[in-house]
Amino acid sequence: MKPEFQLFADAGLPHPCCVPSRQRAAKLEESRRDSASREPVTSGSAEGMTRLDGGTFLMGTDTDEGFPADGEGPVRDVTLDPFLIDAGPVTNDQFHEFVRATGYATEADRFGWSFVFRGHIPPELIDRHVPDLNWWCKVNGAAWRHPEGPDTHIESRGDYPVVHVSWNDAVAYCAWAGKRLPREAEWEYAARGGLEQRLYPWGDELTPDGRHLCNIWQGDFPDHDTGEDGYTAPAPARAFPPNGYELYGITGNTWEWCADWFHPSWHVTATRVNPVGPSSGSAKLMKGGSYLCHRSYCNRYRVAARTSNTPDSSTTNIGFRCVRDI
Fold first, then answer.
1. For 130-166, what is each residue's pLDDT tens digit?
2. 315 backbone dihedrals φ, ψ, rounded to 5°
3. DSSP label at 256?
4. Which of 95, 131, 186, 277 has the fewest C-beta atoms under 10 angstroms from its C-beta?
């Protein structure tokens, strides 16, 4: 094994302190091996995807806007190879094509229920709240075709992001399409749109010149959404202007699954060249925020923000987009 100081130097990392640690060195070596052994996914069509050239960017944040417990920092240099990414989140129409071709049943279909925001369902369905998150209800019959329950349908929402898809469902779609889920570093690089260390894909002001550029909550969460941005529920995938890389819906509207297992401090001793996330965990990482995000409760619609959910979970505010290697 190389001396620890050399491992950190090779990875472009500052040495964490003057006392060496075999554990830190072993974690870095494992991370480098995982990155080097990743299997490229190149069989999918590039139609509807945007090529990003990769390179080195500043990932994460040290701003006091963030949630330190989530592991948003420290800011670090991360280097990525070129890749292709969907210009927008996977839509209902696209997911329908997958289900029609394969007969796939989502986990919400198989469980027979999914989580729906309280404000979007009739009172008679509000009978099973989630403890400590009483704006979420378990609704029988809610699934991707029936977003708010069995009496609702996606018939007029073909260009909306598909929701009620678990991480496992998203992976199944990606495999069918010859693509994969983005790693967190790829997602954040893409979301930044070429800007360096800005809070949002368009800059540091949430509503520049009074313009709403994403679908998030306005008003008193969770009781009243004024809908100043034009929506009080999911919006069409391309309802707002794209970022600098011509990517739509990268912030707000629906959370997006990433490939990585979630860990708040894994990246501190991880390689910074094509990082692939921890090798195991209990929850998968999500980025981007949703229409239910509000500064008073969850301002995770910032580019560097991160959160997680278990791989079998599905809700009315989680979707995904795909990437493909070059």
1. 777 889 999 999 999 999 999 999 999 999 999 999 9
2. -150, 180
3. E
4. 131
